[in-house]
Write a structure and sequence with these properties.
This protein has 18 helices and 18 strands. The protein has about 575 residues and is an alpha/beta fold. Helix 5 runs antiparallel to helix 6. The radius of gyration is 30 Å and the shape is flat.
C-alpha cells in the first residue's frame, strides 16, 4: 500500500543526517549504554533491537534530547543548516487529554499553517515592492519552507492518515482523554507523522496497529526522506521496512573498553553491532557473529594462558642446569652475560605480547537469557486435568465492545484469535478469564478450571504495600506466594537476568515488567493460559522462544494477536473476528 503522505522535502540532499557517536549512560552503578556509535543517513530506516533492558527506549530518548548522555554526542542537522526538528513516538501522548481530536491534529500541523501564512504575507510584501531584493528573498525562503512542509496538501494528508490508521470514523469533537488506549496510541502516531519532523524516532509503532494500519505506516516510511530510527518487536514489520538493524545486545568489545561493572550482563547495551538488510538477514548474521565472538574469546584465552606461562618460564635459555662447557672464568662470564641478555629479551617480548593481548582481548560473551518454557515450573497437575471442552463462550457479547461470539476450547487445544483493531480480541479474553462479565450470552468453565491471563497492560499489584522500591524478586514472591516462590524461584524461567531480580520494579523496562508478569502467571501453571498480544514489548529472541513453547504446554492456550509473523507459523485452531467483533 502506498500512502499519500510523504515526508516533506523532495530529495535526500536536503534531508538531515542523524549521527550517534560514543554514547554512554549509566543510572547509578547500572550501565545502560556503553560506547554506542552508528549513523542513520537521510532516507535510511534503522531498527533498534536487543534484549529487554538493553537500552533501546533510553537511546531513543537520548536522540530526542530528553536525556543527557554521560559521554558522547548526538547530532542532527536540519535541511539548510541549524538544528533538526526531532519527533519521538513514545508512551506519553503529545496532546492534552482535554483537547479534542481536531485540536490535537491542528496542533500537529501548526508549523505548516504558519508556513502557509508566511507565504501569503511575503507574497503581499513582494507585490508592494516588486523590485525589492529583500522582499524577493523573503518570499523565496517562505516558499521553500512551505514546500518542505507540504502546506498545500495538509487536508489530503489529514484524511489519508486518519483513514490509514483506522481513525476515520473517530468523532473529531471527542476529547482525546475519552479515547481508548489503542485509539490514543494511533492518534499519537498520526500526530507525529503529520507534524513531519526532520528526524523520526519511533518506539514500538505497531503495538496498536492492525494489518491495514501497519501497511499504511510501512508506506509512509517508505517515502520518508529523513532519517528514521525505531525500536520494534514486530518481526514482519522490521522485515519489510528497515534498511539496517542495530543490535544493542553486548558486542565483542575489548575488555579494556567494556570492562567489569556490577550491572554488566545480559541486556546491557555495551557496544552496538550494525547489520545490513532485513530482519531475516539479521537472524542468520547474528548467529554467525555470536559463534565468531565465542571462538575468538576461546582462542585469546588460550593464547593468554600460553603467554603467561611463557613469562614465568622464560628466565633461562636452554636447560635450567645448563653451564658453559669451558671452565675459563672469562668464557663463563661471556656465556652468562649472553644468556642473561637472551633471557631479558625473551621475557620482555613475552611481557609485551601479553600486555597487548590483555589490553585488546574481547570481553567474555555473557550468558544469553533463554526462556525455559511455559511449563518450566511444573506441568499442569494431573489431578486437575480435564478432558473435552473446558471453556465455552456461547454467544458472548459485551455492549459496544464484543458482539455475540462463540468459542469452545477443549483441554490441551491451542487457539489463535485474530482480527482488526476494535474487533474485540482483548474483550473476549477478559470475558473468558472472568475479569469482565458479558452483557449477553454466557461463559461456561469446567468445574475447578484454573484460567490465567497475561493482559496487554502490565498488572503487578502490591498486596504487601512494599512501596516504590519493591524489587522484582519481592513482587514475584508477593504475587506468586512465598511458598510457591521458594519452590519455583524466579530464576527458573530464564525471563529476567539475575542482576534485574533485585532492581525496583519501577525502573524495569515495560518489556521486563511484562516478563515478570508472565513469570508470576507461570509459577503455578493454569489449565487454560490466555495470552493477549504476547509479542508486544518483548525482545525478539524471547518472542521466538515463547512461540516455540506454546505447542508443548500441557494445558490449553488461547492467544489473541495481530502479529503477522506468529500468524504465518501458527499450527493450531483459529478464530478470526471481523470488524465490530463479528466472527
Amino acid at each position: 500500500m502506498t500512502s499519500a503522505l510523504l515526508h516533506p522535502g523532495s530529495s535526500h540532499r536536503s534531508a538531515p543526517h542523524l549521527s550517534i557517536e560514543g554514547i554512554s549512560l549509566s543510572f547509578g552503578e547500572r550501565r545502560v549504554l556503553t560506547d554506542i556509535s552508528f549513523a542513520v543517513p537521510a532516507g535510511e530506516r534503522v531498527g533498534l533491537i536487543g534484549e529487554n533492558g538493553s537500552g533501546k527506549t533510553t537511546l531513543l530518548r537520548l536522540a530526542a534530547g530528553l536525556l543527557t548522555p554521560d559521554a558522547g554526542t548526538i547530532r542532527a542537522d536540519a535541511p539548510g543548516g541549524g538544528n533538526a526538528r526531532i519527533g519521538l513516538l513514545h508512551q506519553e501522548a503529545p496532546f492534552d487529554a482535554a483537547a479534542s481530536v481536531t485540536e490535537a491534529l491542528e496542533a500537529a500541523v501548526r508549523p505548516a499553517r504558519v508556513a502557509a501564512a508566511a507565504v501569503d504575507e511575503a507574497a503581499l510584501a513582494l507585490a508592494d515592492e516588486p523590485h525589492s531584493a529583500v522582499a524577493a528573498q523573503r518570499y523565496a525562503t517562505a516558499l521553500e519552507r512551505a514546500e518542505l512542509l507540504q502546506v498545500w496538501d495538509v487536508e489530503a494528508r489529514f484524511g489519508a492518515m486518519l483513514a490509514g490508521l483506522g481513525l476515520a470514523d473517530l468523532p473529531r469533537d471527542r476529547a482525546t482523554g475519552q479515547l481508548s488506549g489503542g485509539q490514543r496510541a494511533r492518534l499519537a502516531l498520526a500526530w507525529l507523522l503529520l507534524s513531519a519532523p526532520d528526524v523520526l524516532l519511533l518506539d514500538e509503532p505497531t503495538n496498536h496497529l492492525d494489518d491495514a494500519g501497519t501497511a499504511h505506516l510501512s508506506g509512509v516510511l517508505a517515502g520518508w526522506t529523513g532519517p528514521v530510527l525505531m525500536a520494534s518487536h514486530d518481526r514482519a514489520f522490521l522485515d519489510e521496512t528497515v534498511t539496517a538493524l542495530v543490535d544493542l545486545d553486548p558486542a565483542p568489545l575489548p575488555h579494556s573498553v567494556a570492562g567489569p561493572l556490577k550491572a554488566d550482563g545480559p541486556g546491557s547495551g555495551i557496544g552496538a553491532t550494525r547489520y545490513s538488510g532485513s530482519y531475516t538477514d539479521y537472524l542468520h548474521s547474528r548467529m554467525d557473529a555470536r559463534e565468531r565472538w565465542e571462538r575468538q574469546y576461546r582462542e585469546e584465552q588460550a593464547e593468554l594462558a600460553r603467554l603467561r606461562a611463557g613469562v614465568r618460564t622464560s628466565h633461562t635459555v636452554g636447560h635450567e642446569n645448563w653451564s658453559p662447557r669451558t671452565e675459563n672464568r672469562m668464557a663463563q662470564k661471556f656465556y652468562a652475560d649472553r644468556n642473561a641478555k637472551a633471557v631479558s629479551r625473551r621475557v620482555n617480548d613475552a611481557r609485551s605480547r601479553l600486555a597487548d593481548l590483555e589490553e585488546s582481548q574481547v570481553r567474555k560473551p555473557p550468558a544469553e537469557l533463554w526462556f525455559r518454557g511455559l511449563s518450566a515450573a511444573e506441568p499442569v497437575q494431573p489431578g486437575r486435568r480435564h478432558s473435552g471442552p473446558v471453556l465455552i463462550a456461547a454467544q458472548t457479547a459485551v455492549d459496544g465492545r464484543l458482539p455475540p461470539t462463540s468459542l469452545s476450547v477443549s483441554a490441551g487445544q491451542k487457539w489463535l484469535i485474530t482480527g482488526p483493531n476494535g474487533s474485540g480480541k482483548s474483550t473476549l479474553l477478559r470475558a473468558l478469564a472472568g475479569e469482565l462479565s458479558p452483557t449477553s450470552g454466557s461463559v461456561h468453565r469446567a468445574e475447578g478450571l484454573r484460567v490465567g491471563l497475561l493482559a496487554q497492560e502490565v498488572k503487578l499489584p502490591d498486596p504487601e504495600g512494599r512501596g516504590p522500591d519493591r524489587t522484582a524478586h519481592q513482587a514475584y514472591e508477593d504475587l506468586a506466594g512465598r511458598s510457591r516462590a521458594e519452590q519455583v524461584p524466579l530464576s527458573r524461567f530464564g525471563l529476567l537476568a539475575g542482576r534485574d531480580e533485585n532492581r525496583p520494579v519501577r525502573v524495569l523496562s515495560v518489556g521486563q515488567q511484562r516478563r515478570l508478569a508472565l513469570a508470576v502467571l507461570l509459577a503455578d501453571p493454569p489449565d487454560v493460559l490466555l495470552l493477549d498480544e504476547p509479542t508486544n514489548h518483548l525482545a525478539l529472541t524471547l518472542v521466538t522462544q515463547l512461540e516455540a513453547a506454546i505447542p508443548d504446554y500441557p494445558g490449553a492456550v488461547v492467544v489473541a494477536s495481530h502479529d503477522r509473523w506468529l500468524r504465518r507459523t501458527w499450527r493450531g485452531e483459529r478464530l478470526e473476528l471481523g470488524v465490530h467483533g463479528m466472527p
